[in-house]
């Protein structure tokens, strides 16, 4: 029988011998776990960075409201390089 090697746990089935629905189910479970891990890691990164930015934006708005907004006292033109 010809085919590609198929890995199930610690067993290696050469050339598709004995490789049936169990192996395909195992590989599907492996891919689902991999995708789940990627989504979980993405969620952690998103929660860490973007919620902190939102919190800091709210803090800046609060402080600007206390100070009465942004005031520009002097306009300075920068020299051309």
In short:
The chain contains one helix and two strands. The chain has one helix at 21-67, and strands at 6-8, 11-13. The longest helix has 47 residues, at 21-67.
Secondary structure layout:
Layout: E1 6-8, E2 11-13, H1 21-67
How would you describe this protein?
By secondary structure, this protein is mainly alpha-helical. It has one domain (6-67). It is built from 1 helix and 2 strands. The chain has one helix at residues 21-67, and strands at residues 6-8, 11-13. It has a two-stranded antiparallel ribbon. The longest helix has 47 residues, at 21-67. The chain is elongated and about 75 Å long. The mean pLDDT is 77.
| Helix-strand string | EEH
Instruction: Indicate the overall shape.
Output: elongated
Quickly give the structural class: mainly alpha
User: How much is the average pLDDT?
Assistant: 77
Q: Rg from C-alpha positions?
A: 29 Å
| Lateral strand order in the biggest sheet | 1-2
Return the domain count. Answer: 1
Number of helices: 1
User: What is the end-to-end distance?
Assistant: 73 Å
Indicate the percent of residues in helices.
Answer: 55-70%
What are the segments in which pLDDT stays under 50 over at least 5 consecutive residues?
Answer: none
Percent of residues in beta strands?
A: 5-15%
């Amino acid at each position: 029988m010809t085919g590609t090697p198929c890995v199930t746990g610690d067993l290696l089935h050469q050339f598709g011998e004995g490789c049936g629905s169990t192996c395909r189910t195992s590989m599907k479970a492996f891919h689902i776990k991999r995708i789940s891990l990627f989504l979980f890691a993405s969620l952690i990164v998103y929660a860490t960075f973007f919620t902190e930015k939102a919190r800091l934006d709210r803090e800046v708005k609060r402080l600007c409201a206390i100070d009465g907004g942004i005031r520009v006292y002097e306009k300075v033109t920068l020299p051309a390089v």
